[in-house]
Automatic annotation (TrEMBL):
Residue ranges of the region described as Disordered: 86-110
Transmembrane segments: none
Record keywords: DNA-binding, Transcription, Transcription regulation
Originating species: Thioalkalivibrio sulfidiphilus (strain HL-EbGR7)
Name recorded for this polypeptide: Putative transcriptional regulator, MerR family
Length: 319
């Protein structure tokens, strides 16, 4: 997930330079990763303040975006520098991370990460889990680490037999740790995502589902602060709550194709006239868009968190 300098022109800068905290919030990259790119690979060369603090230019941010796109396409960090210098850089039309690891050395590397994290989960070793996670983030983008490390390991635990109660407990432990880890990242990124606000409401969300959280992370990189509610929030008060938060829209999420008609019938103003905030729907549970959402004028954002954030950003700019 990456943004261009077009969306950060209004942020406060000093001589057109950005501190590392701002750059990390805007691009989704971890500070450890950014420093590793500088020290180990010489990819980024920021300026320094008299006190030694790093400052990045708009060109540096564009370069970070290019590196992220290459990593998301499966290019190893060791090859990125050569590709950036050549004219044979792989096409960057798609920023989505591959669902399966690339063959060869990188595939074995991801297997090593998964084994390390799996062993740490088995012993409930949170420091080891965090160390493995940060190690992967020092070389790859957050999107890639989620797609290649977190989600495959989550599926591995889910596919264990139902009778394996230990695996079930390990899955619950991992899901909680992963959600807390991503929640922390989201809070870091949202410090700069205050241009637009939306209310994000899970109509249904399984304990291990990360769709809404990943959407909020992608939205934060586009200057959208998504206020996350918990499952079961009464819909009757959503409009009022959203306006109090100065939200520009309400985003509903569901990961399961359940019947939401009964809850949506209580939507404020569903029967009476009056101006309402825009409503958007995303997630597998809202594909295709159910009639109950069509009645309140909801627009579909699809199921992919990053694409949904991009569509929402475009729609809010037109409001």
């Amino acid at each position: 997930m990456a943004i261009t300098t077009d969306s950060i022109e209004d942020l406060p800068t000093e001589e057109g330079l950005f501190p590392i905290r701002t750059v990390c919030a805007l691009t989704g990259i971890h500070p450890v990763t950014l420093r590793a790119w500088e020290r180990r690979y010489g990819l980024i060369r920021p300026k320094r303040t008299p006190k030694g603090h790093r400052l990045y230019s708009g060109e540096d941010i564009e370069l970070i975006n290019r590196v992220l796109r290459l990593l998301d396409q499966g290019v190893s960090i060791g090859q990125v520098g050569q590709l950036l210098e050549s004219t044979e850089t792989p096409p960057a039309e798609s920023t989505a991370a591959p669902q399966t690891p690339p063959p060869g050395r990188d595939s074995r590397g991801w297997n090593d990460y998964r084994m390390r994290l799996r062993e740490a989960i088995g012993s409930l070793d949170v420091p080891a889990m965090s160390a493995t996670w940060e190690d992967a983030l020092s070389l790859f983008s957050l999107d890639t680490v989620i797609q290649q490390l977190a989600l495959p390991l989550q599926r591995m635990l889910q596919e264990r037999p139902v009778t394996d109660v230990v695996a079930g407990a390990e899955l619950a432990f991992f899901n909680r740790w992963l959600r807390q880890t991503l929640d922390t990242r989201l809070r870091q990124q949202q410090c700069c995502a205050d241009a637009m606000h939306v209310l994000a409401v899970p109509m249904h969300e399984s304990p291990g589902d990360l769709g809404l959280l990943l959407f909020a992370l992608a939205a934060a990189q586009r200057g959208i602060h998504a206020h996350l509610l918990t499952t079961g929030a009464p819909v009757a008060g959503l409009e009022t709550l959203a306006r109090r938060a100065d939200a520009s829209a309400i985003v509903l999420y569901s990961d399961s194709p359940l019947q939401h008609s009964a809850r949506l019938a209580h939507w404020p103003g569903a029967e009476a006239g009056g101006e309402r905030l825009p409503v958007f729907a995303m997630g597998p549970g809202f594909e295709p868009l159910p009639p109950a959402l069509e009645l309140i004028g909801a627009q579909s954002l699809g199921t992919d968190p990053d694409k949904a954030a991009r569509r929402l950003h475009g729609s809010l700019l037109q409001v």
